[in-house]
Automatic annotation (TrEMBL):
Alphabetized GO MF terms: double-stranded RNA adenosine deaminase activity; double-stranded RNA binding; tRNA-specific adenosine deaminase activity
Record Pfam families: A_deamin (PF02137)
InterPro entries: A_deamin
Protein's UniProt name: A to I editase domain-containing protein
Every A to I editase domain range: 62-138
Gene Ontology terms: cellular component: cytoplasm; nucleolus
PROSITE patterns: A_DEAMIN_EDITASE
The organism's place on the tree of life at top rank: Eukaryota
Gene Ontology BP terms: adenosine to inosine editing; RNA processing
Length: 165
């Protein structure tokens, strides 16, 4: 485990462990059918939400596995095949379905709130949305969401700690 006198780093390590435990626990609870067997492997991605009341107990909102894109030659003419089956893309699609379902439900969500009369929604104050991936994303995705080299290094460290501890 990484040793540091900085409480911020320690909190990041603790959170990474909590996030990876929540995602892996949810994945392990799923039936065996469709999971890798023997020497097979896959990438797991999950979107989690943490609340201000209990930030080290994140809730898994969506979870997916996947590793590849279909080439143009394998795409169906009817558009009925998923082109990009990377775990983070499928997890994002599942998250969006959940958000739309929460918005249209009669009972208000515990983590979403309407943010005005224009139909927009946002996370409730203090809630944070997180992405957990068991493998580093492709470089395009990594650089797209990180605004600086320091932020990129921090993202790699959290992902590394959560899969290597």
């Amino acid at each position: 485990m990484l040793r540091s006198s900085s409480p911020q780093t320690l909190d990041g390590v603790l959170w990474a462990e909590a996030a990876s435990s929540a995602a892996l626990r949810q994945y392990c609870a799923l039936p065996k059918k469709g999971k890798p067997q023997g020497r097979e492997s896959t990438v797991l991605a999950a979107f989690l939400i943490s609340s201000p009341e209990n930030p080290l107990n994140p809730t898994v909102l969506s979870l997916a596995t996947g590793t590849k894109c279909l080439g143009a030659a394998r795409l169906g003419p009817r558009g009925d095949l998923v082109h990009d089956a990377h775990a983070e893309v499928i997890a994002r699609r599942a998250l969006l379905r959940l958000v739309y379902a929460e918005i249209s439900a009669e009972n208000p969500s515990s983590w979403l709130v309407a943010s005005g009369a224009d139909g927009r929604w946002r996370l409730k104050d203090g809630h944070q949305l997180h992405l957990y991936i068991t493998q580093l994303p492709c470089m395009y995705m990594t650089f797209r969401f990180c605004s600086s080299k320091a932020e990129l290094s921090s993202a790699f460290l959290i992902i590394y700690l959560s899969i290597c501890s």
